[in-house]
Every structure is written in C-alpha cells, then in structure tokens.
Specification:
Blueprint (H helix, E strand, L loop, with lengths): L2 E5 L4 H13 L5 E4 L8 H7 L3 H5 L2 E3 L2 H4 L5 E5 L9 E3 L1 H13 L4 E5 L8 H4 L4 E3 L12 H15 L18 H17 L9 H14 L4 H15 L14
Helix pairs in contact: 1-2, 1-7, 5-7, 8-10
C-alpha cells in the first residue's frame, strides 16, 4: 500500500482526521514531515476516532527528502497549476498506477501539503507525478482529510474488493425463466378475459411489448408470486380491508 506523507501539517486535528480517512479504506502507513505543533499530538488522537494504529506507527522526518528517501515513486497532490513539466493524473489513474507499481515490489508515496497553501515547489520537484482532483474551479479548496480520503477511496476501490453494483436479494432469488413465462401466460389469459388485445391484428405486437417489459426487470420469485396475486385479485374484483364490497372513500 502507498505511504501517505503529510508535509508540515499545521493542526493535530487534521492529522487525526486524515488517519481516520486512511483506515476507513485500509491504509495505515502515514509519515509526517516537520509537523508544526510537534509529535505526538493529543488533538490528533481525539480526531482519529479509533484509528490509533495509524498514529502509533507514524514515521517522522525533518524534510520531504528524508521522508521519501526509500520510495521508488512519489505522487504530489496539487490544486494549482505549476510551471513544471510533469505528468498530471486523476486520483483514479494515480492509484491504478500505484497498484501496478506495488504489485511489482516498488514502494509508493503520496505527498500532501500544509492546510493553508499546499505543497511548495521545493517539495513538488521531488515527486515523479502530480495528482490533480477535478474539483469546481470556482471553489477548489479541499481540506487535508478530504484530500486523503479521496485518494484512499480510489486505492480501495481499485483493489477490486467490492463490486461496482450489487443487488441484495434479501432471502429470495431471481425468478427462473419458466416462472416468468407462467406469469406471462396467466397475465395473457386474464387480459383475454377483458378483451385487452384489440384489435386482434395487434395482439402479437402487444404481447411482445409485455414480454419485453417484464424480461427487462430483475424479477425475483417473490415478485412473481406477488404479481400472480395482483392479477388474480384484480380479475376477481376483490376489495381491500373492508371486505364487504363497499367502495373505499
């Protein structure tokens, strides 16, 4: 995993919040470069909210050069345009590259600057590439913990441990094709009873539309049972809770 390197952080609270963001997404290697209020800092512990293991193994350095001396590839986060020729990556692309490098045994780090002004050029020139977040140009300010969280999230997401989308079936299962066909046959029969397919020349296309509509839906076996019940209740003209045939208000 990449090392998260906070260069001259100004507030212990932000160090703690960054540690919390890191551990949320499985990162626990933090390095601090000359923190303004020294280290350790009790205010960081309060904001870490259970991420004490990140704080416990923090590595301290007096300079950026010292903090990155054992790393093979270093990213620098920046929101400002710099008069430097360097590759600029989105957080997603940067973390994909980090995954590839680390898989080959390389050591990777990400530099984050002080809260007020960000990284200085003297820090940035030591990095191999920039990371730039595509924020609103009219309001591009991200706090330190937010910036760390964005990168940590992309790292975790690209690890492939969670699908982009999943359906919680909640003790049911997807309906079998035969179950769907049986429901459609039931529906067709009831629609025939009320003369729905009119004129007869359009019957085939109307049935195709109904079949296509239900085939697009991720129906479960519970859905099919409910739909059978709905069609049956409508066909038998059942009334609701009143149970006596009176119309509802």
């Amino acid at each position: 995993m990449p090392a998260i390197i906070l260069v001259k952080p100004q507030m212990g609270e932000n160090i703690g919040a960054a540690a919390r963001a890191m551990l949320n997404f499985g990162l626990d290697r933090m390095r601090l470069v000359a923190p303004r209020d020294g280290w350790p800092n009790p205010k960081a512990v309060a904001l870490a909210s259970g991420a004490g293991r990140v704080l416990d193994q923090i590595q301290l350095a007096d300079s950026t050069a010292e903090a990155i001396s054992d790393l093979n590839f270093v990213f620098a986060t920046t929101a400002r345009k710099r008069d430097l020729t360097k590759v600029v990556m989105t957080p997603e692309r940067a973390m994909a590259h980090a995954h590839a490098l680390i898989a080959k045994g390389q050591k990777v780090g990400v530099l984050f600057g002080p809260e007020r002004a960000g990284l200085e050029n003297e820090d940035i020139v030591q990095a191999n590439a920039f990371i730039s977040v595509p924020v609103n140009p009219a309001f591009a300010s991200l706090n330190l913990a937010q910036s760390v969280l964005l990168l940590a999230y992309e790292w975790r997401r690209l690890a492939g441990e969670a699908p982009d989308e999943a359906l919680d079936l909640s003790k049911t299962r997807f309906a079998e094709a035969g179950e769907v066909r049986a429901f459609l046959a039931h529906l067709e029969s009831r629609l025939d009873d009320v003369g729905f397919f009119f004129p007869e020349s359009k019957r085939v296309s109307m049935l195709e539309n109904l079949n296509n509509m239900f085939s697009r839906l991720p129906l479960t076996d519970a859905d099919i049972r409910s739909l059978h019940g709905v069609i049956k209740a409508i066909a038998e003209r059942r009334h609701g809770p009143l149970g006596k045939g009176e119309p509802h208000d």
